[in-house]
Amino acid sequence: MRRILNIVFRLSVLFLAASTVVFAQGQIAPREPLRLTMDCSRFRGPDDTTAQLEVYYSFPQAGLTYLPDSAGYKGALDITLTAKKKDSLFYQQRWLAPHVVSDTAMLIKGMNLVSLQILQLPAGDYVFKMVAKDAANESRNDSVTFRMPVRPVGQGKVMLSDVEFASIIRRAEQKTVFYKNKIEVRPNVGGVYGENQQCFYYAEAYNLLAGEDKGDYFVRSSVFDAVGREVLNWDRPQKRKYESSVILDTVSIRNLKTGTYTLLLSVLDSTRKTLTSSGKKFYVYNSVLGLDSSLQTSTGSLPLNIYATMDESELDEEWKQTRYEALPDEQSQYSGLKGVDAKRKFLTNFWRRRPTGMRETYMARVAYATQNFHMMGRPGYRTDRGRVYITYGPPDDYERHPNESEYRPYEVWTYNSIQGGVEFDFVLRSPGGDYELVNSTHRNELHDANWQRYLTLQ
Fold it and tell me: What residue numbers bound the domain in which 280 lies?
């Protein structure tokens, strides 16, 4: 069966390649970048030793190259998903995600295509990587890497699956890739919602009959803002009839201002004691209400104590160090200030517009970067490694390769909690120089899938 599938896949790729040649003059060029977004949720597997992982992905339909087809125009994404366990390849799957439109007017910018892949894995800590290429133009590609522990659901205590955010949850009229438990759950990959959308979520509760408590239980949904303040909270009573249950609900986001939020889902016993919880972040863009002003402190414009003893040169130096946090209009405003009092006031208000404690965290990172990443008289906070450290904090994992006979020195930094897991690759391209950022899987950073060419000594 696997051999037949591989033959079919190769034939489909050859067909697309041939189509590229025959219909080169009639192809429809991409209208936006090819950006891959990926997310996942863990559920109970078929037995006590296995967990089921749903990997969700989306990409812009206008990000593909389309070729004339008998049904109109056809594009496809060539996707490879791998999973490594203890640095060994454990899983690999490749497939085509095709898309056909009858009219090019249907290729709307900002409209994403969504699908999922289901894996059943034993316990372990995995590194997942999804690589996506435009099947008609492989030079257009993107990739996402993330780390995730997989733990099967055992017996004896109540447990929750991960939360899955969705754009649609409805009774399934027919079985599709999004079908489960007699309903259709279409994932919202990335968990971004506008004020006119409904924020659906799905989860599963297991082992509900475990223990002596056989009374009703409660499902509590709590929403917290970016600084941990609870902004929404509600309980739903449930009858304890079955060993497992599906949890479906919505978050009312119309009154939430633009910002990052966390949904914490909890199962409570009949006395409202918390048995288990599962949380996940989501993002709201509300053009009507704007940014969440509750995140900004309002303690007046008197200078912070730290600035009261700084002279103007020290203030200017700190302002240079805020280069990765300051917005363009703030940079412009500071450059027009005259006098130490104006600069003290500006810096005070600059940090008070940000979450409490952010200055201490930020400046501690600056101090670390200055001490550890300085090169040839260049302050450490101005280097690529310094910028990444200050912006994202210390990585969860360092890979340092300072002395390898066949390669230039390089470092790989991994962050597990950003965008499902991201990687930054730095290479010392010239002796006596600095480690340069040559690639990252972070969607807002430099991306170069062929970055390893910089490692080879010439």
Answer: 155-294
